[in-house]
Amino acid sequence: MKHARLSLFPLGGALLFPRMRLPLHIFEPRYRALVTDALARDRRIGMVQPRDAADPPTLFDVGCVGRIAEVEALPDGRFDIVLEGLARFTIVRELDVTTQFRQAEAELEPAREDEVLALAERASLEMEARRFADGLGYAVDWEAVTRLDDESLVNGIAQIAPFDVASKQALLEADTLAQRSELIVQLMQFFGRHDDEGGATLQ
Question: CA-to-CA distance for 124 and 119, rounded, in angstroms?
């Protein structure tokens, strides 16, 4: 596997997957510095979730590196950016750096072939997604959803579904698209049921 030095952006609940896009509003000084540095170099940022609320937080080992595909520099120094997912990575070791932002040596996962779901897996995911969205009162363009390819559907739901940090991390770490799809169905059933009982742990 290929190793790379990555600038890290720890953000709970924000998942990025290869070939998916993630819009971000950058306002903290250390992450404004990170974006400025990335734009001057290779435009790459390592998105990773924190394990806890410490400062600095402990990080999960697995994240996804994204390339800044779009950027708008605001007059007050903030940025609106869109990241395009390139590859999942595993942190090998965190580096001792003087930058405001954290950096790590990471192992990048090789690119995968396009994955598809079995028809029954796709049908199960779409059915559970409708039930979950209806239960939460979400307005969804289901015609547009049915036109998505399997990868965009599964990873798109994983990115936007209001699950907790640990559940989101499990989705990111799922090895195959089918495993991720099955886990999404299980999480929607679990969180949807608990939401009905008034004890949801949705973010």
Answer: 9
Question: What pLDDT shows up at residue 193?
Answer: 72
Determine how many CB atoms are found less than 10 A away from the CB of residue 70: 11
- Whole-number Å distance between alpha carbons of 199 and 179: 27
Per-residue pLDDT tens over the stretch 22-44: 999 999 999 999 999 999 999 99
Sign of CA dihedral 102, 103, 104, 108: positive
Residues 160-188: what's their mean pLDDT? 95
Q: Rounded to two decimals, what is the model's pTM?
A: 0.90
**pLDDT (mean) for 114-126:** 94
> Once rounded to an integer, what is the mean pLDDT over residues 109-118?
90
β-partners of residue 25 are: 80
Among 177, 139, 136, 135, residue whose Cα is nearest residue 158: 177
Nearest to 99 by CA among 164, 154, 31, 167: 31
Mapped onto helix, strand or coil, the DSSP state of residue 183 is helix
* Residues 85-120: b if buried by 16+ CB within 10 A, e if exposed: bbbbbebeeeeeeeeebbbbebbbbeeeeeeebeee
Is the alpha carbon torsion for 159, 112, 8, 32 positive or negative?
negative
